[in-house]
Amino acid sequence: MVETSQVDSAAQQTRNRSDLVLLVLCSAAFMAMLDTFIVNVAFEAIGEGYPGSTLSDLSWVLNGYTIVYAALLIPAGRLADRFGRKRGFLIGLAVFTLASVACALAPTLWWLIGFRVLQAAGAAVLTPTSLGLLLTVLPVERRAGAVKIWATSTSLAAAIGPVIGGALVKVSWQWVFLVNVPVGVIALIGALALLPDTKGETVERIPDLLGALILAIGLGALALALVKGQEWGWSGSSTLIAFAAAAIAAALVIARVLTHASPIIDPALMKVRTFFWANVTALLFCTAFGAVLPSVVLRLEGGAGYSALATGLAVAPGPLMVPVFAAVGQRLTGRGWSAGYLVALGNSLVCLGALVLALSARTEVDYLTQVLPGWLIIGVGVGFSLPSLLASATVDLPPARVSTGSGIVNTSRQLGYVLGVAMLVALLGTLTTSEGDSLDRFTHSWWAIASVALLSVLTALGITARRASTGS
User: Fold this and answer.
1) 8-state DSSP, 262
2) Would you give the end-to-end CA distance of the chain in angstroms?
3) Domain ranges of the chain
4) Which candidate, 56, 378, 452, places its Cα nearest to that of 226?
5) pTM exceeding 0.85
6) Are 418 and 70 in contact (CB under 8 A)?
7) Are the beta carbons of 132 and 77 closer than 8 angstroms?
8) Rounded to the nearest 5 degrees, what angle is found at the Cα of 295, between the Cα atoms of 292 and 296?
9) From CA 297, how far away is CA 314, in angstroms rounded?
10) What top-level class would CATH report for the domain 2-207+262-460?
11) Which helix (H) or strand (E) holds 11?
12) What is the per-residue pLDDT across 269-284, written as a single tens digit (0 to 9) for each?
């Protein structure tokens, strides 16, 4: 009896420690993803803080972060697999926290954008290492459920960023960044105390850092062309040069992936059917979501005259659907639904929600009849789709490639967010047009978003439930 009691006590202690590890890792990943979206409702306040800023200039507060985040996720994951995930997690978390302070103190808009780039570098390190640690530190029987929790926390961060941002902007837009500091410090203390170090035994080479730099240049050139295309003229020389630079960079990245001894993307991983289609779907889905979220925020602030706080509260019902329907999706998975069908269902609802926004839009904005119905449908779709999408892409990857695989799928997400924001800015152009013209621009944007979401429905059907392996 005594021995049984001791065994039960030891098992409970192990579980309690695992719960704390999961909390530390999820809180850090939540914070990194939150900063991709929390500034959406702070645009107007940041613009007022830096007089003369245009919408295209302000978009780089988002795009500067997401481009660097996307470009560094894969090499950061590879380096962590090689040199130690705990070390990488601590470095990334420290850089992210310190850069958050610098963002709040930035003297000009372009200094702010520069510090956002530094912040993104820290986030790019801590995101894949957090998932890599989760998949190697926790007991095997808890990993699948933990990945769902991790994925839900990061997708929830993407959804509730405007809510938190709206409340903080009411005090000062600088608090959008300072809120990271206490979370970062607590997570650092918890990581030092709780996390063992792990690394992939088979990862021997330094990843292709030049390829990562070329990827960042290509993403930046593409975003620049989309954001500035209307201002420069779509057939203007500057726009064409930017598009050409993006195309050349894409070709160079592909060439280096195929020929480099340690490419930023391991071609063997892309032979895994589930992993490949999950990445394609993540790119398309996040392009749609990356555009629809700021479109709703801008519509409420610009068309309806909502304050940042009112906008955050108005956006809140959609995010509240995410954890609820993530849990529903988990139950459906337990009843035999494949990940592909569940993701396709979620993406279909995002498509439907964007169509509802487009078809119900009027010059005079009415939140209850024109915005809320479509936004709730989109929230349900995100709850079904994103957690299942991330879990299906990473949970069965070989242990030596867990951080690398996480880096790749999160790069696809971030690339989608970059393209989504750039697409929206290109379609909206400016918010200083007449009301009728503004309505047309928003309507066209929502039709475009629905089209991208529909395409992601088709690619989601390629995601299978079979175990991923680098040999298949």
Assistant:
1) S
2) 49
3) 2-207+262-460, 208-261
4) 56
5) no
6) yes
7) yes
8) 90
9) 9
10) mainly alpha
11) helix 2-37
12) 777 778 889 999 999 9
